[in-house]
Amino acid sequence: MRESRHNIVGAAALAAALLLSPMRAGAQWEPVSLHHGVWGVFITPSGNILYSDYQFDGSGGIYTSTDEGDTFTKTCSEDHTYNRFYQFGEMLYATGNGGKIARSDDDGETWVVLDYGTPDGEKIDDVENTACYGLAEKGERLYAADFSAGILYSDDYGDTWHFTDRTSLAIACGGTGEKDEKGLLFTENFYTPYTFKGNLYEFGANYICRYDEQEDKWSRVMEGSNFMMALAERNDTLFCGRTVDDYDATKPFLQFTTDGEHWQPTGRPENELCNYVRCLEVHGKHLFAGHIRDGVYVSDDGGNTYVNISDGLPMLTEVRGYYLSPLELKATDDYLYASLFDTAYDNTEGGLYRFPLNKLANRIAEVRGAIGKARVEGGALLLDKAADRIELIDASGAPRLTATHADRLELGTLPAGTYIYKVSKGGDKMTGKVALP
User: Fold this and answer.
1) Do residues 397 and 363 both lie within one domain?
2) Where are the alpha helices (DSSP H) in 79-136?
3) Are residues 384 and 338 in the same domain?
4) What pLDDT is recorded for position 269?
5) Domain containing 174 — which CATH number?
6) What is the pTM of this model?
7) In this structure, are 404 and 266 located in the same domain?
8) Does residue 110 contact residue 102 with C-beta atoms inside 8 Å?
9) What letters, b where the CB count within 10 A reaches 16 and e where it falls short, cover 139-169?
10) Of the given ranges (22-31, 219-228, 405-414), which has the lowest mean pLDDT?
């Protein structure tokens, strides 16, 4: 874990403030398909399981299972490095690179490839190197976000495409107000269109914008949104996470809105100082957050408190303490599915995983009940019971102290600051933060 960028607090001595964030290991997650390039995952209304195989060389595609994940078959779709899926009416879509979107009318068993690269007869600049990462619907229209060109729409399920207004989406490069050779200000990067409370929004790298179809204009709802792109909706509340490195614990872990205009922070997981949330999902009262390094968190109280349920997910081999990043989370009544994309291609355990939701309530109670007691007293970190290993890591990420088969860790003359401790015993793990003033 990247403790190297954690904040340091306090001045020296051994009276300490102690916060606990325990996790019990017990492999609740199970692999469904071990496949390095899994990115998007989708469960169709009929129960088919789909995932996209994101290969940089274009050798991937779309895989489908009709037997609850026992076997997967590669479909005959052309590969355009597909990333996500979206259901619009009876049609299923897969967004890809190079101006391509695949469409299926039979629950993902067969596909045709659509081309949005020449909307209104105008070829998108450098379309071969752009991508679509999100679709949305409003009324009878399907909207697509092209990474660099803007927001497009189709009135015929993707056969033909048209631009929405690009001038109102444009920004000045570097704040200079200079225009490019086509007379438009530079556009930002577009990621996730989303319809909420009857309005269409676009979540980009820098702004959140709302669309007025009658005027064909976009207006900014938030400036400096900073990659607010991971979205999930529950009970007329829209939750959003930032998909960008951010190690400032004073900033929100997630934000939420009930009207699409005003945003408020949620709570945050104990001792989680990184705000990089890759994906969100909701199921019933549960809000799930896929974290860039720390696996999966779940909240059963609207984001006020969180429990980590990552045990059994694969870890990166080259970076100690990191889980493979879940790029997508999808829930059914029986399982929570997670796609674990292995960017380094050196981990044989990347792929599609699932967590049985009938164990979730017990899992949450188990973790909360396993908080146990740890305290700083008399110049030592004390545990109620002896552990196999106790490790203390400083804010730079460097191990500072270690004890094995012990119930205490002598702190000696450590300088003031915030430290992360990790305790393990058998299959149980506990982490926490200790601030030495």
Assistant:
1) no
2) none
3) no
4) 83
5) 2.130.10.10
6) 0.78
7) no
8) no
9) eebbbbbbbbbbbbbbeebbeebebbebebb
10) 22-31
